[in-house]
UniProtKB/TrEMBL annotation:
Annotated source species: Chryseobacterium aquaeductus
Gene Ontology biological process: secondary metabolite biosynthetic process
Gene field: fabH_3
Keyword Lipid metabolism: no
GO molecular function, one term: beta-ketoacyl-acyl-carrier-protein synthase III activity
UniProt keyword list: Acyltransferase, Transferase
Enzyme class: transferase
Cited InterPro entries: ACP_syn_III_C (IPR013747), Thiolase-like (IPR016039), Thiolase_N (IPR020616)
Residues covered by the Beta-ketoacyl-[acyl-carrier-protein] synthase III C-terminal domain: 284-364
Residues in Thiolase N-terminal domain copies: 65-165
EC code: 2.3.1.180
Taxonomic superkingdom: Bacteria
Name used for this protein in its record: 3-oxoacyl-[acyl-carrier-protein] synthase 3
Cross-referenced Pfam families: ACP_syn_III_C, Thiolase_N
The organism's taxonomic lineage, starting at the top: Bacteria, Pseudomonadati, Bacteroidota, Flavobacteriia, Flavobacteriales
Length: 379
């Protein structure tokens, strides 16, 4: 078995940062009416700027595959040329199409002139970590000499007003208030576009910072809890999900079936406590001392969870002082599967890391409550 190192990281964020006041200029007004929930949601999530692959007319400027390819291209240099790439592993929850796979489309965008192995991880926020794990295991087993792993999102195109206007019009016809449900609107003000890529190799780079991946663990609580975040379906009274394929085609628009939705009631109840439970399991499994951790990078969807997450960790004996936490949510926004990659890239290239330091990664996924965590060592 080989050691595995992140030897280079690269981030691509499309266009210029978008402020809170500008958001509806890009996403548009549902039913030509300013959102009443927007200010409250933004105040709670504490996001100040984010990135959209849109112009101010709501027109797309990049596909997810293009954003991802841009991040990958940032890895190429004199030590690692594009034709050297052996494995491309991509994770996203917002692929541009149902089929073919996201990694296929990214491979096509890269124009590297050769065949490579590809892997696509789908789902929600953990899809990026799953893509990383696939590359990690291939290098560790000696199957590949290098792997490029990417987490990306392009959710803005899912959140433009035209995706919800038909539902609002249908509510008018039913003589109901033409306001889309909170479970749909909530996420319009939460999500951001971007991608970040890691180069994995079995040796660290000389005279440069590399990060050794010591382990990656995953946990799912789908055996205990119903779905919380979902798309392409509608949640039923008993908590089950009814697939888009079971609805007449006209209902896809009437009920915004393909919109990304979140059940905020069970989100609050489970997201933090199960995250702490899973992390405690990993610390016990690896006999890891919390005091040995120098940097804590935890993906959170909203600043609303920041204090609560620290408290829940402390409740299971993992009381990390604030000076060890690294957050970039307020500037970058919630990039889903790409968030933890972007945070690692920023810290890795900050010039603040010292050899021997340990970096803890924590990623929750509210789809049906799945979690991942990893330990990196600075080399």
């Amino acid at each position: 078995m080989y050691d595995v190192f992140i030897t280079k990281a690269s981030t691509y964020l499309p266009n210029e940062p978008v402020s809170n006041d500008e958001m509806e200029s890009y996403l548009g007004l549902v039913n030509d009416t300013p959102s009443k929930a927007r200010a409250l949601i933004l105040r709670n999530n504490k996001i100040k700027t984010r990135y959209f692959a849109l112009d101010k007319n709501g027109k797309s400027t990049h596909t997810n595959a293009q954003i991802t390819a841009k991040a990958v291209e940032g890895l190429f240099d004199d030590q690692f040329k594009k034709e050297d790439m052996q494995l491309l592993s991509c994770g996203t929850s917002s692929a541009d199409q149902i089929q073919p796979s996201h990694s296929s489309m990214v491979h096509g965008e890269l124009n590297i002139g050769k065949s490579v192995e590809i892997n696509t991880s789908t789902g929600l926020c953990n899809s990026g970590m799953n893509a990383l794990n696939y590359g990690f295991l291939n290098i560790k087993a000696g199957i590949k000499d290098n792997a490029v792993c990417v987490g990306s999102e392009r959710m803005s195109a899912w959140m433009t007003a035209d995706k919800f206007n038909h539902e609002a019009e249908n509510l008018k016809l039913l003589e109901e208030r033409p306001i889309i449900a909170f479970k749909r609107e909530f996420l319009r003000w939460m999500l951001s576009d971007g991608a970040s890529a890691f180069l994995l190799e079995p040796k660290p780079r000389e005279n440069e910072i590399s990060l050794r991946i010591d382990w990656i663990d995953f946990y799912s609580y789908a055996h205990e809890i119903e779905a919380c975040m979902y798309s392409g379906c509608e949640k039923q009274e008993d908590g089950s999900l009814k697939s888009w394929a079971e609805y007449p085609a006209e209902e896809w628009l009437n009920q915004s079936i393909f919109a990304l939705k979140q059940d905020t009631k069970i989100l609050d109840k489970y997201i933090l406590v199960k995250g702490a439970e899973s992390l405690r399991t990993s610390f016990d499994k690896h006999e890891l001392d919390p005091d040995s951790i120098d940097h804590v990078l935890a993906h959170i969807s909203s600043g609303y969870f920041k204090e609560g997450l620290k408290e829940e960790f402390a409740n299971v004996g993992l009381d990390f002082p604030w000076e060890k936490w690294f957050y970039n949510l307020s500037e970058v926004g919630n990039v889903g599967a790409g968030s933890i990659f972007i945070a690692v890239e920023q810290l890795m290239n900050s010039g603040n890391l010292k050899k021997g330091e340990r970096i803890l990664l924590c990623v929750p996924e509210s789809g049906r409550f799945a979690y991942s965590c990893a330990l990196l060592t600075v080399c």
